[in-house]
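EI: anyone free to look at a 217-residue chain?
SC: sure, send it
EI:
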Amino acid sequence: MTDCLLCERNQTDGYLCPGCTLATARRLDRMPKLYAALAAFLQPAARGADGGRTQAVDAPLPVSEHVLDLRGPGGIVGVLEDWRSAMQADRGWSEPTAAGLTEARVIRAARALSMNLDWIAASWPLAGAFAEEIRDLEKDVASVVNPADRAERGTRLGKCPALDPSGAICGAILRHFPGEPAVTCRWCGCAFEPHEWAGLREWIDRDAANDVQKMAS
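SC: here you go
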């Protein structure tokens, strides 16, 4: 018996305890619904009393860019398909196809992972990393579609790209909280002012792409 790789509390004969396996199954089941729910948040501008849209603010990184990312190639569908591909490779199966509309791809990938969840929990050494990313992905979407959660936890932007004195990337999760004038890393203290947000998005995307390449290699 070993500690569950997700909660690190409960004992299991495999890699995920029954409770974390069930929670992951429910998260996978909700993924298509969460993807659909994000469509309502693609346009962050609110309507004024005259029926027109309010002026777009400068550097809109903390709002609309994040929604686009979650619904884009590297968002929900990318996370699910990457894990499905890794799972099938480790089971000796052929590479899954990724064709069709994004919504249909989300449904297929989530279903395939759900159908293999017993094997993942019992036999896959990557089960902990997989379950953790699915949990974080659900939190990302909740921070957008649930205003109370968004105000409390802030909007998740990605991993902090700041470099420490040794040249290593910080990697802590960056969040933007309503009312804060800058995006500040709670771990390393690096602050990104609004005029830097366009560059910040490029750094975050570049580091995320590098992480995917490392996972695939």
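EI: Strands lie at 2-3, 11-12, 155-159, 173-176, 183-184, 191-192.
SC: 👍
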